[in-house]
């Protein structure tokens, strides 16, 4: 039960629509449930301000479906599923049984959203997601869609890397960079984009190294080290290909 649900419950008691005993019973619900293969956290939204997210990679399609159903049955209106395979999507749609349980899936980012889609009219602030190249878009979309799921306005600036720096410093792109509350800079190869963006903006920059690049890129390690050694102030770094982590952190910054 999240903060909003608790407030609604207390309001119903205040209006006489629910008894104190019924409300107490709901509040006594266990904060998690042992499903054998998972212990879904029903109080995550109340503790942290955002509900539990399912990391799909490594889980079976059955496990993903059952965890999502369990979270929604305990009041979570929507569930974000990251690294969800096409096979897991197909299994979900074929076995969900409840026709009201929707699944919105994006194949590029491998993001699935079970339940209600977020209301974009209530999105706040401004997060800019910028990529060095088109090859970084799967990670970028994971970040962007995570931030949108959490209620943020997101602007995408894709393929604006240092190989063609004029694409980044044109008027339209610079207006977005200078008006952002937080920027997510995503790049592979040498990872230079984060330092450039950090030197142009007055807001926090979250750098995301990607595993894009030839042999000496070492699966993103070269970009990671470059970003960690950025001489631009205000640049923080998340793990290689961790678009979700960047989107979540950007949301926390944007909503402060």
UniProtKB/TrEMBL annotation:
All residue ranges annotated as the PurE domain in the record: 125-256
GO MF annotation: an example: hydrolase activity
GO annotation (BP), single: 'de novo' IMP biosynthetic process
Superkingdom of source: Bacteria
Classification via PANTHER family: PHOSPHORIBOSYLAMINOIMIDAZOLE CARBOXYLASE-RELATED (PTHR43064), SLL1489 PROTEIN (PTHR43064:SF1)
Name of the protein in its database record: PurE domain-containing protein
Species name: Butyrivibrio proteoclasticus
Lineage: Bacteria, Bacillati, Bacillota, Clostridia, Lachnospirales
